[in-house]
Amino acid sequence: MKPYAWMLALGLIASPLAACDTNDGPLEEAGEEMDEAAEDVEDAVND
User: Fold this and answer.
1) CB under 8 Å, gap of 24 or more: what pairs does 28-37 form?
2) How much of the chain is in helix, strand and coil states, percent to nearest 5?
3) Phi and psi at residue 24, in whole multiples of 5°?
C-alpha cells in the first residue's frame, strides 16, 4: 500500500476516536460536575 494511502486510512480511523469526548450525555456531564465539586471541596478542606 502506498504511503499516502496509509496516512488516509490512519486519519479515517483516528478522527472518530478524537471526537468521541464531545458527545457526552447529560449523565456524563452531571458526573463530571460532581467530580469537579468534590475536588473543590477537597481543595477547600486542604487549605
Assistant:
1) none
2) 90, 0, 10
3) -70, 140
3-state secondary structure of 25: coil
DSSP code of residue 24: -
Show the cell assigned to 10.
490512519
Please write the tens of the pLDDT for every residue from 2-11: 677 767 777 7
Q: Residue 47: CA atoms inside 13 Å, Cβ hemisphere, count?
A: 6
Beta strands per DSSP E along the chain:
none
pLDDT number for residue 21: 57
> pTM for the whole thing?
0.48
Which amino acid, residue 6?
Answer: W
